[in-house]
């Protein structure tokens, strides 16, 4: 017992002296670190202020250069180029512009605002930079504010008077500075734990460290030494930020010295660091004292030696100890060593048996797993190669497997992934729009059902066949899904084609037959003028039949990929006049034609372009409003290397939601108007093919009962 106490006391005495010395050194290091912190904060404030001054001075010099150069430039384009060159010299410029004395922008960089609207020609008299302009000073700098117009963010303006060589005021050169560039200057010098603010002349925060934007400084007190109240460089200060008390340094910056850069650190952090050092020292002393007492209690050499030998044998897991590891002094430890040896021998035998069984089981599991994986991969490849969709359900009717074809069929209609959802819910969700859709229970009970699927990608018809799976643990039922959309559409097209043929062929053939029968009655004594009218009518009906056959042949060429064009440079107006002449026979119409000079000559296939214009104009005449005069406006211009051709009318318009369907075959806006308007429903199909063959696009905008506008864009 005396040995333990003496050992504990000696260990504690030896340990406490270095601890006290270490604590003293740590205290000295803390004081040194605090001094270094203040020095670093002072240098940070000074460097940020110098960087901001350099950036503002550079911007001001460039604005003064712009103010001296821009009045001597005669054109807006020359000013735009000059401003663009100046903008490259200073990354902080968001925009630069030259305003006339009347407040109108006559030079701008960039040319377009974020909304894509040109910046030149804008009245700036209501803008903040115009209201704050100064005529009594060569330049001015504004406080920060939220801008709108050419820049939609918080900015600072620098403006300068622009005078001619004779001293006459020619306008103002103004720039908007990107405050994020100044924030980046502060971020370069920011250190962990520091709080940094940059404020403008009105106290507006230009930059604040992360987490400080919503809690700005509420009080600010500069600690300027009395002996040097105007000493240059950063000055110490105290400030309150929320519930924190901050101490640090601030420096004045800006072109007028009215911007502030403040770098601080909460007092609480400094106190925490000092408290942490004291606590660490106390904990270290307590730990050493406890460890010394424990070491004294375990300081018996025989026990340590016996434990060391036993530990060596146990670590090596030896059944028999080495000669240097055998214990002789303590009987209890010697018996423990013998028991450990017997235990290790039994464990060795058991481990060998377990390893043998594990190897056998691992081989069998690997063989069975490989066979099962091979079968599953084969079945998966077979199911994935199916042209039809396949769903597999469990006992509860939940979808547990689906091939890619089934996922694609349901992806546009199902809300989310189909795996894990109930098959009945999926069927009800995807086919709820169909009035004739059977109940989900009937679909899943068996047999084949044709269902109508409506989704964002269009309308589909699916043949769904459900079948049971006998003897399956995981799979209880399967559903085979065949896409019958093409077959259903072919049936619809056949019905439409029969209807079109019955109407469009029957009417002209009946007229020709009646006219021929009338002419054969020689005893009637028809006048020559009457006979000529009948012959002309027959000729018109034959022409209509020829046009119908030509439309069908064009559709066949489109389907066969043989629809080609032959482009050449031609005048556009004669083509429009020929199309106008063709459609006048369809009814009374007033056609107004406007062509920009740049669009008078175009590179198109003249015959196909005439067919395109004839189709668009004839549609406007056919679907005119009966209660008002039919007026069609045709306008052509070039824009962004494209020919823009628009055909606008004041007709009945297109019903809302039908704009995409008007380019489908045999579709007419109002199928009930077929008798009055005529047509096969193929004109816009052919028009779309003509535009695409020219590498362009066609768009339609319509308002019901007001009119429609077709816009064709073709590369110029």
From TrEMBL:
Keyword annotations from UniProtKB, A to Z: Kinase, Membrane, Phosphoprotein, Transferase, Transmembrane, Transmembrane helix, Two-component regulatory system
Record-annotated Histidine kinase domain positions: 500-716
EC number: 2.7.13.3
Membrane-topology annotation of the record: Multi-pass membrane protein
InterPro entries, sorted: BphY/WalK/GraS-like, HATPase_C_sf, HATPase_dom, His_kinase_dom, HisK_dim/P_dom, HisK_dim/P_sf, PAS, PAS-like_dom_sf
Any one GO BP annotation for this protein: cellular response to phosphate starvation
PROSITE patterns associated with the record: HIS_KIN, PAS
GO CC term (a single one): plasma membrane
Pfam families the record matches: HATPase_c (PF02518), HisKA (PF00512), PAS_8 (PF13188)
GO molecular function terms listed in the Swiss-Prot or TrEMBL record: phosphoprotein phosphatase activity; phosphorelay sensor kinase activity
Record's catalysed reaction(s): ATP + protein L-histidine = ADP + protein N-phospho-L-histidine
Location of the PAS domain: 375-411
Main location: membrane
Localization terms from the record: Cell inner membrane
Top EC class, one word: transferase
Transmembrane segments: 277-299
The protein's name in its UniProt record: histidine kinase
Source species: Sutterella seckii
């Amino acid at each position: 017992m005396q040995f333990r106490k003496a050992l504990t006391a000696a260990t504690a005495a030896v340990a406490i002296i270095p601890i006290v010395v270490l604590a003293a050194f740590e205290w000295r290091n803390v004081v040194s670190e605090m001094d270094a912190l203040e020095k670093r904060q002072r240098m940070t404030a000074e460097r940020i202020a110098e960087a901001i001054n350099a950036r503002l001075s550079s911007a001001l010099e460039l604005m003064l250069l712009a103010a001296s150069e821009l009045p001597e430039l005669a054109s807006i384009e020359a000013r735009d180029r000059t401003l663009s060159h100046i903008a490259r010299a200073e990354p902080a410029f968001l925009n630069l512009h030259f305003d006339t004395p009347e407040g109108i922008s006559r030079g701008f960089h960039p040319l377009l605002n974020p909304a894509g609207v040109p910046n030149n020609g804008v009245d700036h008299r209501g803008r903040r930079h115009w209201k704050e302009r100064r005529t009594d000073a060569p330049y001015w700098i504004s406080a920060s504010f939220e801008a709108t117009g050419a820049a939609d963010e918080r900015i600072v303006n620098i403006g300068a008077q622009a005078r001619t060589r004779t001293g006459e005021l020619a306008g103002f050169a103004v720039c908007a500075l990107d405050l994020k560039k100044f924030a980046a200057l502060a971020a370069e010098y920011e250190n962990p734990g520091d709080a940094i603010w940059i404020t403008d002349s009105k106290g507006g925060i230009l930059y604040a460290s992360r987490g400080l934007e919503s809690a700005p400084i509420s009080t600010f007190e500069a600690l300027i030494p009395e002996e040097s109240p105007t000493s240059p460089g950063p000055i110490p200060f105290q400030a309150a930020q929320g519930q924190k008390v901050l101490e640090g340094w601030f420096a004045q910056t800006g072109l007028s010295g009215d911007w502030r850069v403040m770098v601080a650190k909460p007092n609480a952090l400094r106190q925490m660091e000092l408290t942490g050092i004291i606590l660490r020292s106390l904990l270290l002393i307590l730990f050493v004292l406890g460890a010394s007492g424990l070491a004294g209690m375990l300081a018996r050499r025989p026990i340590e030696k016996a434990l060391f030998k036993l530990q060596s044998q146990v670590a090596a897991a030896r059944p028999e100890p080495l000669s240097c590891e055998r214990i002789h002094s303590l009987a209890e430890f010697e018996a423990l060593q013998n028991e450990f040896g017997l235990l290790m021998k039994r464990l060795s035998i058991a481990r060998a048996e377990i390893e043998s069984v594990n190897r056998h089981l691992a081989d069998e599991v690997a063989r069975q797993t490989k066979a099962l994986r091979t079968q599953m991969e084969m079945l998966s490849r077979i199911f994935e190669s199916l042209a039809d969709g396949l769903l597999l359900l469990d006992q509860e009717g939940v979808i547990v497997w689906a091939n890619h074809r089934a996922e694609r069929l349901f992806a546009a209609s199902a809300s989310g992934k189909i795996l894990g959802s109930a098959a009945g819910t999926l069927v009800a969700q995807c086919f709820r729009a169909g009035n004739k859709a059977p109940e989900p229970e009937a679909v899943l009970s068996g047999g084949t059902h044709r269902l109508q699927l409506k989704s964002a990608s269009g309308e589909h018809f699916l043949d769904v066949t459900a079948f049971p799976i006998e003897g399956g643990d995981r799979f209880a039922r399967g559903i085979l899904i065949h896409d019958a959309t093409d077959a259903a559409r072919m049936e619809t097209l056949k019905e439409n084609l029969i209807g079109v043929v019955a109407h469009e062929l029957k009417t002209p053939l009946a007229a020709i037959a009646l006219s021929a029968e009338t002419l054969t009655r020689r005893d009637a004594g028809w006048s020559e003028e009457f006979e000529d009218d009948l012959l002309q009518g027959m000729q018109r009906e034959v022409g209509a039949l020829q046009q119908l056959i030509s439309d069908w042949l064009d559709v066949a060429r489109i389907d066969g990929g043989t629809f080609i064009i032959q482009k050449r440079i031609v005048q556009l107006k004669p083509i429009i006049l020929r199309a106008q002449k063709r459609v006048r026979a369809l009814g009374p119409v007033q056609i107004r034609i406007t062509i920009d000079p740049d669009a008078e000559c175009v590179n198109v296939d003249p015959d196909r372009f005439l067919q395109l214009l004839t189709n668009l104009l004839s549609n406007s005449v056919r679907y005119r409003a009966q209660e008002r005069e039919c007026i069609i406006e045709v306008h052509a211009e070039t824009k962004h290397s494209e020919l823009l051709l628009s055909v606008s009318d004041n007709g009945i318009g297109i019903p809302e939601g039908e704009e995409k369907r008007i380019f489908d075959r045999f579709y007419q806006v109002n199928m009930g108007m077929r008798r009055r308007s005529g047509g096969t429903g193929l004109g816009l199909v052919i028009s779309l093919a003509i535009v695409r063959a020219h590498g362009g696009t066609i768009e339609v905008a319509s308002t019901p009962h007001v009119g429609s506008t077709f816009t064709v864009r073709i590369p110029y």
